[in-house]
Amino acid sequence: MKQAILNGPLDMSIKEQPIPRLKPGDCLLRVESALVCGTDVRIFEGKKKKNVTYPTVMGHEFSGTIVECNGPLAPGLTVDDLVAVYPIVPCGRCTACIRGRSNICRNRQAFGYQIPGGFAEYVHVPAAAARAGNLVKVNGVHPTSASIIEPLACAYNGLKLIDAPAAHSLLVVGCGPLGLMHIRLASTLGVERIVAVDPSPQRLAVAAKSGAQCTLAPGDTAAREILEFTRGDGVEAMVVAVGRADAFEPYLDALSPGAKVNLFAGFPTGEDVLAVPANEVHYNEYSIVGSSSCHLSDFEFVASLVTDGVLQVEDLITTIMAIDETEAAIEAAKAGHDLRVGITARS
Length: 347
Fold this sequence. Notes:
The protein has 347 residues and is of the alpha/beta class. The chain contains eleven helices and 17 strands. Strands 3, 4, 5, 8, 9, 16 and 17 form a seven-stranded mixed beta sheet that branches. Strands 12-11-10-13-14-15 form a six-stranded parallel beta sheet, sandwiched between helices. The protein has a two-stranded antiparallel ribbon with strand order 1-2. It is globular, with a radius of gyration of 20 Å. InterPro entries: ADH-like_C, ADH-like_N, GroES-like_sf, NAD(P)-bd_dom_sf, Zn_alcohol_dh.
């Protein structure tokens, strides 16, 4: 089978490898579709080092068909099922896991990191992952749509942390792929007033189609325009979906009292200092949180939205390339012209 192996920063090779032999409880997936995440770009460039070891096979956003299992499958699954893969395998024993925060388990393993991921023809699913429910059935969904469930679930986790599903208004700063996913999810979940901010007219146009009623370019008047759109109330929830720490403060005046803010994007090391006047937070009772990955329950919920046709995602994957072109796909994702770049080993 082919794997796109990252030997070190900026050092990738496509290699033929033997198909893994399955231990009891293990499964084998034929990868149908994998997507390139911004995190994959940072791992490829060597800018993200945490939990990364070499050599590695990246790809934590992927779908596949179950082709073999050494033992019984989890209830509800059969060979030939199409599944979306929840990438995190938590330890189940640490403080985070015990408190129901297994998505931030410090001992976790994950596909595309410690476990070879979806930039391959086949993926070996360890028994612990198969047993824990990491394979979520999505029969009837296009494989590329199935592969985008993971980032959508991350967006859903971020929205939940700021109570956005119950909010009347939401501001999303940054309309890259994840910003657009936040907008689309919020619209699907019934948020009444959604504001999108981005310098790209093309991305603002997609944001409008995704459910944003107010689209703005960043600038000196943006906060005032947001206040006007919300009839002076300000927004109840805000997502910073761009990796710039200075993308938060310009919109402080557009927040309603008690607003909740999610710093969703990852920020470059050394450029991650957040400058916020403490009294603004203190007197307005702002809540500022981060979010990391998603819970299995988030993944399953979003998978149900996609499989039921409630959430349309096909148009978010704009380019698909062959596995032999994985490095070019990563470069395409970095360039930012596409919403999401896919990789497939299928002819």
